[in-house]
Amino acid sequence: MMWLQENWIVALVVAVAAVAILWWLFARRKPDTFDDVAAPVAEPARPAKPLEPVKPDIVAAEPARFKAPEPAPTPPPAAAPKPAPAAESAAPEPAAPPEPAPIPAPAPAATDAAADNLQLLKGVGPKLATLLNSLGITRFDQIAGWTDADIAEIDPQLGTFQGRITRDNWVDQAGFLARRDKAGFEAKYGALGGEL
Asked: Does some domain include residue 133?
């Protein structure tokens, strides 16, 4: 007993360790609570047939930028004059019908000094501005005055830029710029990006 009195700390540590080991061994053999009992795990039900992803219906369409420009309609050929009947052969021959008047050329484009910078319109870059100039469109007031019929006539001539007129609201933008209303333009469409 003398040893126990001198080494009581060592004895206390050994006793605590022995209790912990015994508790661990007996607690594993005899479950007391529902936490120790493993609940049976049921597998989730599997579908009879795997789900197939929905495939979108794809309709093949030719992009607008690859469409060939439609040829301009040609005027019908002039009708040949009918020969005079034999009974009227004694009468002087009528004069040949006048030739049809040539189709007037489009109005000459405005001079470069009077041309507006079409690149100020949102959606118009250098290539598109050059294309519009080649079509005789050089001023904002021309674009601001376009009707739906004018847009329908000009849009197919824009090639890869078809649809830009309505998508970018050129007529409305050009109205602001033709009136030199920089504040109104910037309030609706953002910074002008150049000088009027």
From this structure: yes
Looking at the domain assignment, is residue 86 inside a domain? no
- Residue 72: closest CA among 15, 148, 157: 157
Low-confidence ranges of the chain (pLDDT < 70): 1, 4, 29-42, 44-73, 75-113
Helices 182-189, 170-178: crossing angle, 10 deg rounding: 150
- Model's pTM, two decimal places? 0.43
- Closest Cα partner for 142 from 165, 162, 160, 122? 165
pLDDT at 24: 85
Q: How many domains, the chain?
A: 2
Specify the pLDDT at position 110: 44
CA atoms of 118 and 177, how far apart (whole Å): 10
Domain assignment present for 179 = yes
pLDDT at 64: 54
As a whole number of angstroms, the distance between CA 53 and CA 51 comes to: 7
- In-domain check, residue 127: yes
Query: CA 68, CA 27: separation in Å to the nearest integer?
Result: 86
- Residue entry with tokens 């033709």: 178
Domain extent at residue 183? 111-196
Distance CA 131, CA 119 (A): 12
